[in-house]
Amino acid sequence: MRSFSNLWFWIALAVMWSSASHWVLGVPYDMVLRARRNGGQIEQDLEDLVRINTNRLLYIANVSGLWMLALGCFLLTTLCVLGFVYRVEFAQALFLLGFPMSLVGLISLSTARLIQHEMSQGEQLRARLTRHRLYVQMTGVISIFVTALWGMYQNLSVGPLGG
Hints:
- There is one protein chain.
- The protein is mostly helical.
- The protein has helices at about 5-20, 30-40, 40-85, 90-120, 120-160, and strands at about 25, 25-30.
- A two-stranded antiparallel ribbon has the order 1-2.
- Strand 1 (about 25) and strand 2 form a beta hairpin.
- The chain starts with 6 loop residues before the first helix and ends in a 5-residue tail after the last helix.
Protein backbone atom coordinates (compact mmCIF):
# COMPACT_ATOMS: atom_id res chain seq x y z
CA MET A 1 0.00 0.00 0.00
CA ARG A 2 2.62 2.54 -1.10
CA SER A 3 0.64 5.74 -1.48
CA PHE A 4 3.19 8.46 -2.09
CA SER A 5 4.89 6.64 -4.94
CA ASN A 6 1.56 5.97 -6.64
CA LEU A 7 0.62 8.31 -9.49
CA TRP A 8 -3.09 7.92 -8.69
CA PHE A 9 -2.60 9.48 -5.27
CA TRP A 10 -1.09 12.62 -6.81
CA ILE A 11 -3.82 12.77 -9.47
CA ALA A 12 -6.46 12.48 -6.73
CA LEU A 13 -4.74 15.25 -4.75
CA ALA A 14 -4.69 17.57 -7.77
CA VAL A 15 -8.31 16.84 -8.71
CA MET A 16 -9.45 17.30 -5.11
CA TRP A 17 -7.88 20.76 -4.78
CA SER A 18 -8.89 21.81 -8.28
CA SER A 19 -12.50 20.93 -7.49
CA ALA A 20 -12.38 22.54 -4.06
CA SER A 21 -11.22 25.86 -5.49
CA HIS A 22 -13.64 25.75 -8.43
CA TRP A 23 -16.80 25.00 -6.42
CA VAL A 24 -17.23 27.87 -3.97
CA LEU A 25 -19.99 26.91 -1.51
CA GLY A 26 -21.41 24.61 -4.17
CA VAL A 27 -21.40 27.31 -6.85
CA PRO A 28 -18.99 27.12 -9.79
CA TYR A 29 -16.61 30.07 -9.63
CA ASP A 30 -17.07 30.91 -13.31
CA MET A 31 -20.65 31.81 -12.39
CA VAL A 32 -19.32 34.40 -9.93
CA LEU A 33 -17.16 35.88 -12.70
CA ARG A 34 -20.06 35.92 -15.19
CA ALA A 35 -22.31 37.60 -12.60
CA ARG A 36 -19.64 40.27 -12.09
CA ARG A 37 -19.34 40.89 -15.84
CA ASN A 38 -22.98 40.62 -16.91
CA GLY A 39 -25.19 41.09 -13.84
CA GLY A 40 -28.93 40.76 -14.40
CA GLN A 41 -30.38 37.26 -14.45
CA ILE A 42 -26.99 35.59 -13.97
CA GLU A 43 -26.44 37.57 -10.76
CA GLN A 44 -29.93 36.64 -9.56
CA ASP A 45 -29.18 32.97 -10.31
CA LEU A 46 -25.91 33.25 -8.37
CA GLU A 47 -27.67 34.78 -5.36
CA ASP A 48 -30.34 32.06 -5.47
CA LEU A 49 -27.79 29.26 -5.68
CA VAL A 50 -25.72 30.69 -2.84
CA ARG A 51 -28.85 31.15 -0.72
CA ILE A 52 -29.93 27.55 -1.33
CA ASN A 53 -26.48 26.12 -0.62
CA THR A 54 -25.81 28.22 2.48
CA ASN A 55 -29.22 27.40 3.93
CA ARG A 56 -28.57 23.70 3.27
CA LEU A 57 -25.09 23.80 4.79
CA LEU A 58 -26.24 25.69 7.88
CA TYR A 59 -29.24 23.38 8.33
CA ILE A 60 -26.98 20.31 8.26
CA ALA A 61 -24.58 21.99 10.70
CA ASN A 62 -27.39 22.91 13.09
CA VAL A 63 -29.07 19.50 12.98
CA SER A 64 -26.09 17.14 13.01
CA GLY A 65 -23.03 19.36 13.29
CA LEU A 66 -21.94 18.07 16.69
CA TRP A 67 -22.13 14.44 15.55
CA MET A 68 -20.29 15.23 12.33
CA LEU A 69 -17.59 17.07 14.30
CA ALA A 70 -17.19 14.14 16.70
CA LEU A 71 -17.04 11.58 13.87
CA GLY A 72 -14.62 13.72 11.86
CA CYS A 73 -12.31 14.21 14.84
CA PHE A 74 -12.43 10.48 15.58
CA LEU A 75 -11.57 9.54 11.99
CA LEU A 76 -8.79 12.10 11.66
CA THR A 77 -7.31 11.11 15.03
CA THR A 78 -7.44 7.44 14.03
CA LEU A 79 -5.72 8.17 10.72
CA CYS A 80 -3.13 10.35 12.43
CA VAL A 81 -2.26 7.69 15.02
CA LEU A 82 -2.23 4.87 12.47
CA GLY A 83 -0.19 6.92 10.04
CA PHE A 84 2.34 8.73 12.14
CA VAL A 85 2.65 6.51 15.23
CA TYR A 86 2.26 3.09 13.61
CA ARG A 87 3.78 4.19 10.27
CA VAL A 88 0.93 3.05 8.01
CA GLU A 89 1.59 4.98 4.80
CA PHE A 90 -1.97 4.61 3.50
CA ALA A 91 -3.29 6.23 6.69
CA GLN A 92 -0.74 9.05 6.30
CA ALA A 93 -1.97 9.67 2.77
CA LEU A 94 -5.63 9.69 3.83
CA PHE A 95 -4.85 12.04 6.71
CA LEU A 96 -2.98 14.42 4.40
CA LEU A 97 -6.06 14.44 2.14
CA GLY A 98 -8.68 14.59 4.88
CA PHE A 99 -7.31 17.07 7.39
CA PRO A 100 -7.00 20.03 5.00
CA MET A 101 -10.44 19.27 3.56
CA SER A 102 -11.89 19.39 7.06
CA LEU A 103 -10.39 22.88 7.33
CA VAL A 104 -12.07 23.77 4.03
CA GLY A 105 -15.34 22.53 5.51
CA LEU A 106 -14.90 24.82 8.50
CA ILE A 107 -14.04 27.75 6.22
CA SER A 108 -17.18 27.02 4.18
CA LEU A 109 -19.32 26.89 7.30
CA SER A 110 -17.90 30.20 8.50
CA THR A 111 -18.46 31.85 5.12
CA ALA A 112 -22.03 30.52 4.95
CA ARG A 113 -22.76 31.96 8.39
CA LEU A 114 -21.32 35.35 7.37
CA ILE A 115 -23.30 35.43 4.13
CA GLN A 116 -26.53 34.60 5.94
CA HIS A 117 -25.83 37.03 8.79
CA GLU A 118 -24.97 39.90 6.42
CA MET A 119 -27.70 38.92 3.93
CA SER A 120 -25.04 39.47 1.28
CA GLN A 121 -26.08 40.35 -2.24
CA GLY A 122 -24.48 41.77 -5.33
CA GLU A 123 -20.90 42.98 -5.02
CA GLN A 124 -20.70 42.12 -1.31
CA LEU A 125 -21.66 38.50 -2.05
CA ARG A 126 -19.20 38.21 -4.93
CA ALA A 127 -16.41 39.65 -2.76
CA ARG A 128 -17.25 37.19 0.04
CA LEU A 129 -17.18 34.24 -2.41
CA THR A 130 -13.89 35.45 -3.92
CA ARG A 131 -12.34 35.76 -0.45
CA HIS A 132 -13.60 32.26 0.41
CA ARG A 133 -12.00 30.90 -2.75
CA LEU A 134 -8.71 32.61 -1.87
CA TYR A 135 -8.73 31.01 1.60
CA VAL A 136 -9.42 27.59 0.06
CA GLN A 137 -6.61 28.07 -2.44
CA MET A 138 -4.16 29.13 0.28
CA THR A 139 -5.13 26.05 2.29
CA GLY A 140 -4.61 23.95 -0.84
CA VAL A 141 -1.17 25.38 -1.58
CA ILE A 142 0.01 24.74 1.97
CA SER A 143 -1.51 21.26 1.92
CA ILE A 144 0.06 20.31 -1.40
CA PHE A 145 3.43 21.64 -0.23
CA VAL A 146 3.34 19.68 3.05
CA THR A 147 2.07 16.55 1.29
CA ALA A 148 4.79 16.78 -1.36
CA LEU A 149 7.51 17.22 1.28
CA TRP A 150 6.20 14.30 3.33
CA GLY A 151 5.76 12.17 0.20
CA MET A 152 9.33 12.85 -0.94
CA TYR A 153 10.61 12.05 2.53
CA GLN A 154 8.68 8.77 2.56
CA ASN A 155 9.83 7.80 -0.93
CA LEU A 156 13.47 8.53 -0.07
CA SER A 157 13.40 6.76 3.30
CA VAL A 158 11.49 3.67 2.11
CA GLY A 159 12.87 3.52 -1.43
CA PRO A 160 15.85 1.50 -2.66
CA LEU A 161 18.35 3.99 -1.22
CA GLY A 162 16.61 4.45 2.14
CA GLY A 163 16.13 2.31 5.23
